[in-house]
DNA sequence: GTCTACTGACCGAATGTTCGGTAAACACTT
DNA sequence: AAGTGTTTACCGAACATTCGGTCAGTAGAC
């Protein structure tokens, strides 16, 4: 009942969406530059040229995937819960939501986190990502100014390390194996905010 | 006085060592697969073919660089200080030393952390890296069993998150800009072991 | 008969690597 | 000091292969 007749008529096969999701999977396995259109064709079960019927090219696939990750992060920034309450409360909420977006859009965020700026597409994505990083940096600095973060550590360092732990999730998390986004966020916040030592 | 006449006679130019260090720099900028031998030649100030006078090929450059990172981590595991004392003390020491190796061999470790297993060389490096990861996992589990880590978080999750923060350092650390390896380790251990909240 | 979703043949450019040649620096003899 | 031979460190051209991408043609659903 969910999608009885999605479009008028279809011969069964691929559409831009399924091509994208499979392509992103291969990009994450072999790296974007290490993936050839031949690799994608093999994963899709069609020939190289069939891909160009659905999408304009390799770099457009990358651009669409990166936007999917970045749009999630920017929606997070625009949420009013990221702007009300004490800085430490907002920071905790933002960390939790970041983990949720990372888990919900795992392959897309994973791809984003590996971008190095080799093309215009990648540089544009990097610039949007840096905007998110600056947003986090401001939150940590505010929380420190409000006296809710221990004063003997540099806020800039804390920002990097805290979100280093968050982004590392994309490198080892396996959704099939139990833990939910909330489990991850709980463990992360307990460690980073409360400390591991008993 | 350091190197008056390193070898008998030399016309000034490159050697395998300088080629490696420059190549690793370019690999980290553009990614290994995104780097062509032409890119390397440009960075070295020679033509493509000159590179093959000093090193056997692109993949050998990668292999040598990855070994340089992995050898550091394996020396750490073999140190007796990683085997004496309580588990939490050993864990703290290993985290601190890992940060030091990461900083000392920054470009090599950075390259290692981005390997995805695209070739035999990469798969071999990944396997050695996993051995180090298992070593860390055992340390955390022991510390939890000895009651020195809060019991309300999964040791496997803690391992990943803690070393996620460590490895993230390679993605943002700039040696020129102040912080030393000890500064990084101090901030990391304060956050992860003591907690950020005052 | 028309549209969808492809295939297969092909293109020019870029890839990692090899090879023949060579100018300069050195060692050795005279 | 001059001449000879060898080694070092490279260049330029070419190699086969792979790359991302194009295009004419077509089988099958409507």
Automatic annotation (TrEMBL), chains A, B:
Domain of life where this protein originates: Bacteria
Protein name: TetR family transcriptional regulator
Keyword Transferase: no
InterPro entries: Homeodomain-like_sf (IPR009057), HTH-type_TetR-like_transc_reg (IPR050109), HTH_TetR (IPR001647), KstR2_TetR_C (IPR041490), Tet_transcr_reg_TetR-rel_C_sf (IPR036271)
HTH tetR-type domain span: 13-73
UniProt keyword Transcription regulation present: yes
UniProtKB keywords: DNA-binding, Transcription, Transcription regulation
Molecular function per GO: DNA-binding transcription factor activity; transcription cis-regulatory region binding
Gene3D superfamilies: Homeodomain-like (1.10.10.60), Tetracycline Repressor, domain 2 (1.10.357.10)
DNA-binding residue intervals: 36-55
Pfam families associated with the record: TetR_C_24, TetR_N
């Amino acid at each position: 009942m969910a999608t009885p007749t999605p479009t008028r008529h279809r011969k069964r096969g691929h559409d831009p969406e399924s091509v994208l999701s499979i392509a992103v999977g291969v990009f994450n396995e072999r790296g974007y530059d290490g993936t050839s259109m031949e690799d994608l064709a093999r994963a899709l079960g069609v020939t190289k040229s069939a891909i160009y019927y659905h999408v304009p090219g390799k770099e457009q696939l990358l651009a669409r995937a990166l936007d999917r990750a970045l749009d999630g992060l920017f929606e997070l920034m625009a949420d009013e819960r990221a702007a009300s309450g004490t800085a430490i409360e907002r920071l905790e909420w933002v960390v939790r939501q970041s983990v949720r977006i990372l888990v919900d859009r795992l392959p897309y965020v994973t791809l984003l986190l590996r971008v190095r700026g080799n093309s215009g597409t990648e540089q544009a994505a990097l610039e949007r990502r840096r905007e998110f990083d600056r947003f986090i940096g401001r939150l940590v600095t505010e929380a420190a100014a409000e006296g809710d973060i221990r004063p003997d550590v540099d806020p800039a360092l804390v920002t990097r390390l805290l979100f280093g732990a968050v982004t590392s999730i994309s490198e080892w998390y396996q959704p099939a194996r139990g833990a939910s986004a909330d489990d991850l966020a709980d463990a992360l916040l307990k460690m980073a905010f409360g400390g591991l030592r008993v």
